Amino acid sequence: MVGEEGAFVLGWDEVLTDEELSVTLKVLCMSEEEFKEYKEQDGWEDDSEEEENSTLSNEALSRLKTPCKKLLYDSVLLTLESYGADLKAEQDLLNNQEAYEKLSRREQQALHVRYGQKRILHQLLELVQ
């Protein structure tokens, strides 16, 4: 369901791998009985048109059912824990010109990438709280 990368791609305004995330959330949040029915039907063949027209925008994420929100929230917390430093530490380093200039060009670029990723994850936390 998640694809080759084993991760979902989030943007500022929507989930870029929305179909994968949508199906994954549906499957992980269904009851055992619903899952059996899902397996017997080989998925949701009759819902394909509805899913093609729906994207997981930030607004749509905030309207998810509570179990899906909780699953996303907990997943984001686990992802944030995998980083060495928190968002504030990254922001402090970006704001400290002297310390920032001591970093190699590659370290500076990595810092910007991590900071951006963390900001998107924190935004997602707020959407699904």
Automatic annotation (TrEMBL):
GO terms for biological process: methylation. GO terms for molecular function: methyltransferase activity. It holds the Pfam family Rubis-subs-bind. SUPFAM superfamilies: RuBisCo LSMT C-terminal, substrate-binding domain. Residues 43-53 have a biased composition (Acidic residues). Keywords: Methyltransferase, Nucleus, S-adenosyl-L-methionine, Transferase. It is found in: Nucleus. Its main location: nucleus. GO terms for cellular component: nucleus. InterPro entries: Rubisco_LSMT_subst-bd, Rubisco_LSMT_subst-bd_sf. Residues 38-58 are annotated as: Disordered. It comes from the Eukaryota. Residues 4-121 form the Rubisco LSMT substrate-binding domain. This is N-lysine methyltransferase SETD6. The lineage of its organism: Eukaryota, Metazoa, Chordata, Craniata, Vertebrata. The gene is Setd6.
